[in-house]
Write a structure and sequence with these properties.
The chain is about 30% helix and about 25% strand. By secondary structure, it is an alpha/beta fold. It has 3 domains: about 120 residues, Nucleotidyltransferase, domain 5, CATH 3.30.420; about 190 residues, 2-Layer Sandwich (Nucleotidyltransferase, domain 5), CATH 3.30.420; about 150 residues, Glucose Oxidase, domain 1 (3-Layer(bba) Sandwich), CATH 3.50.30.
Length: about 475
């Protein structure tokens, strides 16, 4: 059995907005008399949009109407309608995600998105999908190594570390090509990001809005930005500089980096920059080309093995359209089709708690459920478990009872019970839960999906004759 679906990726970034359409092939890889196992066996980008400058009304307001106009036009050029799209992701990334009306933009696109899974990217998710779109994830898997993808956009730099195809670390820095914007005609500074003003004050760099551009001053600033990158990668001793740039957490740096890739708008000027282009260094009205040239000539390029990615400026949108989605296991339970469901927080029972026995599992759920109580009651959550490989029936019943006892009377406040498992046991567990609940509570139980506390999950409409569901795992989302 093969099923071909169309996926769309829409990336609304600090600097640019773009779309891609991909063809994803699902296939049952099990033998005729085995339990079906539906997997993604091919991904192919079939349409890339033009790259547009993201339209803003002012410094803090995205232009919803113009963004929608861009996306509607590209749907027409690609020859698709919302009804053709089965999965995908709409993400607002970087500084654009922090704008006050970002959630309104997503709402305005809901009819174009249709029923597919919609992901809104926080820094961690943005870093991961850029690393997937650039090819860093696949390289780490193929070469069995640690690979770092550094995605330098207009307002932020998102870093993802992959080991053997798995994400092991992420980080986001306030470093980007449009932290300082330039009027190319008048050659004056048009805008300086507030954080950059603090940095310049600290290092006695005098750059002010409405003054003439000074290449020496901008070079000094870009040297500081590059020093922060060196520190986060561990080739320069960590100092107070890095604290200015980290949006949240630092990289752990408890692994040996073998390969580094750059993606994002600045990446092209790291790989392809030549000194003769210096006359066009303000071509895009920002410091992106200057920053790229300084990184190209820095120690970063000497300390690591540098690879050029499959995609640079399009890495995030390719990742969004082709790589955000995972497929659940083929033996799942859903007693009611309520999909798509979006932005569901994960309550994860630690594996060490699972192996300590029934009482520990039950108490873990009972204690953690308090995290999800908000004013007005208990919010819907998804319970995450590793589960058991090839469980016996009594083990399935024991886990089901632990879940029901741990949730207790709170189950009356849940619209339905959602359980996400790593191991392949969702059909048996889901049916057991539904039976023990006397069929009074709808149950969604899916497997072959790994989640952690702090994650959110989106589950799309069933595919593969209803046997599987598309899933996006994400972190640091905002609700809409």
């Amino acid at each position: 059995m093969k099923e071909v679906i169309i996926s769309v990726g829409i990336d609304i970034g600090t600097t640019t907005t773009q779309l891609i359409f991909s063809k994803i092939t699902l296939e049952n890889t099990a033998s005729t008399f085995s339990i079906p196992r539906i997997e993604i066996n091919n991904k192919e980008v079939i349409y890339k949009s033009k790259i547009y400058f993201t339209p803003f009304i002012d410094e803090v307001t995205l232009d919803i109407l113009k963004i929608r106009e861009i996306i509607e036009g590209e749907y027409i050029h690609a020859g698709f309608t919302p009804e053709n799209i089965k999965t995908g992701a709409v993400i607002i990334t970087g500084e654009a995600a922090r704008k006050g009306n970002a959630s309104l933009v997503l709402k305005s696109l809901s009819d174009l998105a249709g029923d597919f899974v919609v992901a809104t990217a926080g820094p961690d998710l943005e870093a991961i999908i850029a690393g997937k779109g650039s090819g860093a994830e696949q390289i780490s898997k193929d070469l069995k190594c640690v690979t770092v993808n550094i995605d330098i956009g207009g307002g932020t730099t998102n870093i993802a570390v992959f080991e053997n195809g798995e994400v092991i670390d992420t980080c986001c820095l306030n470093i980007g090509g449009r932290l300082v914007r330039i009027n190319k005609e008048l050659m004056v500074i048009e805008y300086i990001q507030p954080m950059v003003k603090k940095i310049m004050e600290k290092f006695n760099i005098s750059i002010k809005e409405n003054e003439k551009v000074s290449i020496n001053k901008l070079t000094d600033l870009c040297n500081i930005l590059t020093d922060a990158l060196k520190e986060v990668l561990g080739i320069k001793e960590k100092s107070h500089i890095l604290e200015y740039f980290l949006t949240e957490k630092d990289l752990k740096r408890d692994y040996k980096i073998e390969y580094v890739l750059f993606s994002g708008g600045v990446a092209d000027y790291i790989y392809d920059f030549v000194e003769e282009n210096i006359i066009n260094k303000y071509e895009y009205g920002d410091i992106g080309i200057v920053l790229g040239s300084i990184i190209k000539n820095s120690d970063i390029m000497k300390k690591f093995r540098i690879l050029k990615p499959i995609e640079t400026v399009r890495a995030t949108v390719v990742g969004a359209g082709s790589h955000t989605m995972e497929i659940s296991g083929s033996t799942i339970t859903y007693t009611k089709d309520v999909f798509p469901i979006k932005n569901i927080p994960i309550l994860k029972v630690a594996y060490k708690e699972e192996i300590e026995g029934k009482e520990v599992i039950k108490n873990s759920i009972k204690n953690k459920i308090e995290w999800y109580k908000i004013e007005g009651g208990l919010q819907l959550f998804a319970l995450g478990l590793k589960g058991i490989k090839n469980p016996k029936f009594i083990e399935v019943v024991d886990i089901a009872n632990c879940i029901i006892d741990g949730i207790g009377n709170n189950i009356n406040e849940l619209e339905y019970l959602i359980v996400v498992l790593e191991n392949d046991m969702a059909k048996a567990l889901g049916q057991t839960l539904y039976s023990l609940l006397n069929k009074n509570k709808d149950v969604i139980c899916i497997d072959n999906i790994k989640v952690e506390n702090g994650d959110y999950i989106d589950i799309g409409k069933p595919l593969g004759a209803g046997r599987v569901v598309p899933v996006v795992i994400k972190t640091l989302v905002f609700n809409f």
